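Why RNA polymerase sigma-70 factor? Reviewers of the renewal asked for a concrete example.
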Amino acid sequence: MIHTKEKKFEAVFREHFKELHGYAYRMIGNSDAAEEIVQHVFLKLWERDWEKTLQSSWKAYLYRSVHNQTLNTLKRYKLQQRYEAYQTVHAENLQDLPFGEQELKKELHAALAKLPEKSRIVFEMSRFQELRYKEIADTLNLSVKTVEGHMTKALRHLRVHLIDYLTVLVLLFTYKL
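Here is what the prediction returned.
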C-alpha cells in the first residue's frame, strides 16, 4: 500500500511539475525560484495526509497552492529588497549602536527562555519554523484562538524585555535569525 501511495504521488508530481513550474516562472521570472516553489508545494502536500487533504481536483489544488506560495515568495523578496535599501541608507547608524547582532540574539534567546513553555514553543514555531497558526494548532493539538493567545503573550513579553533592541530586532529578525 505504501508503494502504491508513493507511486501515485510520484505520478501526480511528474504529471503536473512542468506546467506548475511554468506557471510559477511566469509569476516570478526566475526558474530556480519557480522550481523551489513547486517543490515546496509538493513537499507540504506529502507531509500532510495528501490523499485525504484534497477535496477538489488535483490541478486546481496544485495551481492554487503554487499561486499562493509564489505570492508569499514575492512578498519576501520585496520585503528583503526594502530591508537592503534601508540597510544601505542607514548602515552608518546601525554601526553606531552600542550592541551587535550576537548580543541581540543572546538577549532574544534569554527573553524567550523566560516565557511559559507553550508560549515559547508557539512563538518559535511561528517565527523560526514559519508555520501558520492553523499548522501550529494542529501540531500542538490546540485551537487557533489558543495559539493566537500564546503569540500575543509572547510578543508582549518580548516587547517589554527587548525594548532597547526593538528597532534593530525588527530589522534583523525578519532577515537573519
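The mean pLDDT is 80. This is the kind of structural detail the renewal will allow us to pursue systematically.
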